[in-house]
Amino acid sequence: MTCNVRLTSTAQQDFYRAQAHYDTEAPHETARSVAEFFTTARRLTAFPHLSPELRHGARRANLRVFPYQLWYRVHDDASIVEIIAVLHHRQDSEQLNDRLEPQPGD
Q: 3-state class of 47 per DSSP?
């Protein structure tokens, strides 16, 4: 199964915040971190069920080099991987509780 990837608006904000961090703190790493994000997202299109469900149907994929996680849900009926958060490893995943609540129809 091949899926399409969709980012929620809050996940987009997370992504831009991470990119801004690298732009400020390590500009030489910005392009590489963005490339790794997209590589991980592409991997999810081919293997959406690779990671186990953790909470409320959400799964987590780690970037390989950079310390970020993609929290996502798989919508098999629509062939969509919905990225709901881009979280730094040191951030407390408890702050995602609102985003991880079951959605209508789940």
A: coil
Cα–Cα distance for residue pair 22/15, rounded to 1 Å? 11
Which sequence spans correspond to the domains of the chain? 4-90
Superfamily of the domain at 4-90: RelE-like (3.30.2310.20)
Residue 68 has pLDDT above 90, yes or no: yes
Q: What is the pLDDT of residues 52-61, one digit of tens each?
A: 999 888 999 9
Beta-strand pair 53-55/58-62: antiparallel
The four Cα atoms 81, 70, 46, 23 give a dihedral, to 10 degrees, of: 110
Query: Which tokens in the block code for residue 70?
Result: 């993609």
* Burial letters 59-89, b for 16+ CB under 10 A, else e: bbbebeebebbbbbbbbeeeebbbbbbbbee
Q: How confident is the model at residue 106 (pLDDT cuts 50, 70, 90)?
A: very low
Say if CB 93 and CB 75 are below 8 A apart.
Answer: no
